[in-house]
Amino acid sequence: MSASCAVDLDGEPDERRLAWVYLSRVVQGPCAPLSALIASVGVCEAARAVREHELPAALRGPTAMRREIDSAAADLETITRLGGRVITPDDEEWPSWRMLGLDQLDIERDREAAVPLVLWARGPLSLTTASERAVAVVGSRCSSSYGMQVAGDIACELAGRGWTIVSGAAFGIDAAAHRAALAVGGSTVAVLACGVDRPYPAQHDRLLAAIAETGLVVSEYPPGVSAQKHQFLARNRLIATLGDGVLVVEAGLRSGARNTVKWARRLGRPAMAVPGPVGSASSVGCHRMIRDGEALLVTRAEDIIDEAGPLRLPVTDDATADRAAHLRGAEADIYAALPTTGSRLPRELSQQSGLDLATVRAVLPSLELADLAGCDSDGWFRTSGRRAR
């Protein structure tokens, strides 16, 4: 950190913090070109370039509307008055390892893939600590009593076992998951698509206040920013980023929960879905994701912990490890996709490995002959280091 950006001895916000907050207000959401500029020249110089309009063409449009609005000091006063704080990449609370996944995504494919500039937060939980073991629970806003019960039961058990429940504070499944975590004294994080001073939906002002008392309400949007449609899609990437996996309980065919699952898959997080009654319109999205291999079928908290829990390295004998180490191409990709707990169907392995279904079906028998894979009535699995549920 340069001398000009050092923290003042009297504890006043330093130049870097003001620069982060200024830029957060200017772009209001993910902005890949600005993130690239900050990585190249630093946040203080990037803020100067925006103010003085000395920018590459890709940044002139996104910054034109608000570059002359410098309310950084006022924004910091506002969030402090609300009992909150701003978390920047300079802070220990910044969940750096969580953000690594976003940092690796192709921003040409999705503009929203950029790492957030800052996160505005209300609540006593440390974001780093809260996201160490976390599951995102999302689903339909127009949920059924069945969905509310299932979401509440699973979230209650996960929270009771020390897992943080991450969701978006929406009607339906989101609210059920948050309330279940609060009911057992567990940790929960609400990620908003607006400023943390703007309860959204408005009917959840008490719920969000309760979350802010013991958990955490976060957003990448500065105080005062209202919710807009496109901001919910960007918000979904943060819900997926902060969890070790994404669980969907009830979703229509065009549910926003499927967008969160898309982000989870791109980030390498497991996506899971709870099945519903076969004729239920509320669960048709879950059934489609399960059928198409976009999400794994789960029915209880234990299933979720098996998929999203800490990696338990298998114990393999030297001969098996040597055979696996010599795999190349499609065989190596498919072997890497095989689970050591449970089983996966060829279609699921195709989705996991990125290979076509015909290739997967052709390679599996050769892995079985090499005693590296086995199959049962539920699908295929890795035989080396296999552990029981």
How would you sum up this structure, described in words?
It holds the Pfam family DNA_processg_A. It is built from 18 helices and 11 strands. With 389 residues, the chain is an alpha/beta fold. The strands form 2 sheets. It has a 9-stranded mixed β-sheet, with helices on both faces. A two-stranded antiparallel sheet has the order 10-11. The longest helix has 16 residues, at 145-160. It is globular.
- Counted up, domains total 3
Helix amount: 40-55%
Mean pLDDT: 88
CATH architecture of the largest domain: 3-Layer(aba) Sandwich
Q: Count the beta strands.
A: 11
Please give the order of strands in the largest beta sheet.
1-2-6-5-4-3-7-8-9
Q: Which percent band covers the strand fraction?
A: 5-15%
Output the number of helix runs: 18
The CATH class of the largest domain: Alpha Beta
Distance N to C terminus: 49 Å
Main sheet summary: 9 strands, mixed
Q: What gross morphology would you assign? A: globular
How much is the radius of gyration in Å? 23 Å
CATH-assigned fold name of the largest domain: Rossmann fold
Unreliable residue stretches: 1-12, 311-316, 385-389
**SSE arrangement, N to C:** HHHHHEHEHEHEHEHEHEHEHEHHHHHEE
The helix-and-strand class reads alpha/beta
List the main descriptive attributes of the protein structure presented here.
disordered N terminus, DprA, DNA-processing protein DprA, Rossmann fold, 11 strands, Arc Repressor Mutant, subunit A, DrpA_SLOG, two-stranded antiparallel sheet, alpha/beta, disordered C terminus, 389 residues, 18 helices
